[in-house]
Design brief:
three-stranded antiparallel sheet; alpha+beta; 3 domains; 10 strands; 264 residues
Amino acid sequence: MTGFEQAFDDAEQAAEAARRAAARLVSTANAVKKAAQTGNIAAMRREQGKLGEALDALREEVGRAAACWPFSEAEEAGYLKEGYGPELLEAAAGKGLSIYERDGQLISPPSILRILPDSRSVQLDRKRIPTIRPSWLADLLLRNRGKSSGFTPQRFLEALYSVYADITGPSALLSKQGGGVVPLARIYRLMTALPGVGRDYDRMDFGRDLYMLDSGGPRRTRKGAEVSFSSSGGKYRPRDLFYFVDPAGVSIDYYGIRFRDVGE
């Protein structure tokens, strides 16, 4: 079956042909009008003879444009579930952009892309986008690489610290070693405990924010507590881990977090 990129290109070309045919009809009608305004009978009759031809051509091109999309609604949803992801990866690769697939989601660091077949759209960093032509979306992801995602590392660090302190107690943070390692799965459960929060901020979102904080964010809270992360070391179950993919396609995983009070 034709892929979306080719189908959108065919629809674009058919629409352009219909637009040109419509422009010819308008141009011919304007010529008839001008001849009538000036009283040029020969020109008026000549252009009137062209009106029927222009209208027939327009009907033909409009018919093609209206019927050129090859997918039924069921086929659209099916293709989005099965064929769209590979086609998007191919389109991105053609533009020098790497997209990695993890757990049914697509990652183009720092963006997370989710395909939404039922709504014929995608979700890009929690924003629904209905424009899904593969080449267009690949260009958007390329532009996003150089833009701020709106992520605020310091605010995220403070939120992690607040939950961590509630779990360990303030006195643990004052010791020389700091608090113990707290599983991030526990932190995440508490941060998403309100109804609906986990749906809007899932495990992959949390993993991305951990990676962005770890790879280039602040290391100390405003109160002077220093953060450190621990990875799996191959010892923990997948559901206990959070991960993201770096620009080279390497999966970075996180198991636990620890804060140590080093003063203001």
